Amino acid sequence: MLVLTSDSLRGYGLNRIFNFVKQAGYGGVDLAIDFKNYDSQNTEYVKLLSDQYQIPVVAIQVPQISSPKKIQEVVKMAKTLGTRIIVIQPPKIFDFKYIQWLKNEIPKIRQKENISIALENAPSETFLGIIPEHAMGNVNEMKKFKHACIDTTRVAQKHDDLIRIYKTLKKYLVHVHLSNVKLGKQYYLPNEGILPIESFLTKLKQDSWPGNIAVKVNPKFLNAGDDEKVLKTLLDVKKFYDTYFTNVQVMASATPEQEEAEEAGTPKKGLF
Domains, the chain, ranges and CATH? Predict the structure, then answer.
C-alpha cells in the first residue's frame, strides 16, 4: 500500500497532512515523531485525525536522537493507534549503552507487544571520511536485528545497488521509505532520478511483498506551500506507483534454486 510520511509535508499541521493524504488517495500516514512538535506526540490528537479522515497510521518513525524511554513511549502510542510498525534509526557509533539496549531489549518488546520494530539503513555520514557515524547500519547488522526498513536515498548515498540490497534484506524487510536522487538532490520525487525505482517497485510486486511503501521526500519537491501543486504532485507520484506496482501482473514465483541462480548471476532455468 502507498502511504505518505508526515515529514514529506513538514511545515503543515497534521490536520492538513491527513487531508492531503485523503484527497490524493493514499492508503495511510507514516508518522514522523518530532520531539519539538507536540502534535506529533499527542496520541489522542493523532487518533482523532486518523478516525476523522479514516486514514490509518501504518508506521511511526522515531527520530535519530532517541532513547529507551522515548522508544517505549512510541510503542505505547502505536498500541493505541493500532500501528504495527515502528522504524528506528541506527544509533551513534559511540553510544554503547543505547546500542546494547537495542540489541538486547527490542526483541523482548517485539514479542511482548506483538509489534514490529524495524531498523533503517544508516545515512552515509562518517568521521574523517573513514569511520561511519552510526552503528548497526549495514546490511549484516540489519539482518541480525531481524526487522528492516530500506530508505532508498540512503542506498544511493552509499553508492549501493538498490535491487541487491533489497534481495539481501527481503526476508527481513517490513517497511520502505521511497524517494530518488536527481542532480545531486536527495529525497527527490520517486518518479524522477537516478535510482531504478521502477524496477524496485516491480520486483516488490512480483515478490508479493506485503509491506507498506511510504513516500518520503523533501517538502520542497512536493511544492509545499502551494496546495494545488502539492496535490497534483502527490497524484503524479501515485500514478507512477500504480504503473510500476499496483498494475503489474504477478508471474509465477521462482523456485529457491532459480532465486539462487539469479543471485549468482546465472540464467534461471524453466522461466522461458
Answer: 2-263 (3.20.20.150)
3-state SS assignment for residue 73: helix
79 closest CA partner among 53, 105, 104, 47: 47
Q: Could you give the 3-state DSSP secondary structure of residue 206? A: helix
Q: Which three cell numbers stand for residue 82?
A: 493500532
Buried b / exposed e across 131-170, counting CB within 10 Å, b at 16+? ebbbbbbebebbeebbbbbbbbbbbbbeebebeebbbbbe
| Phi, psi torsion values for 223, nearest 5 degrees | 65, 40
pLDDT digits (tens, 9 = 90+) for 120-176: 998 877 665 677 788 888 899 999 999 999 999 999 999 999 999 999 999 999 999
DSSP state of 242: I
Give the span between the Cα atoms of 55 and 38, in whole angstroms.
20
pLDDT, residue 135, reads: 84
User: Rounded CA gap, 96 and 102, in Å?
Assistant: 10
**Alpha helix segments (H runs only) across 127-195:** 139-145, 152-157, 162-169
183: pLDDT strictly greater than 70: yes
pLDDT band at 265 (very low <50, low <70, confident <90, very high): very low
Confidence (pTM): 0.90
Calculate the CA 8 to chain-centre distance.
12
Helix axis angle, 162-169 relative to 197-206, nearest 10°?
30
How many CB atoms are closer than 10 A to CB 231? 16
pLDDT confidence band for 243 (50 / 70 / 90): very high
Distance, in Å, from the CA atom of 65 to the CA atom of 87, rounded to the nearest integer, reads 13
Would strands 116-120 and 85-88 be described as parallel, antiparallel, or unpaired?
parallel
Strand partners, 150: 176
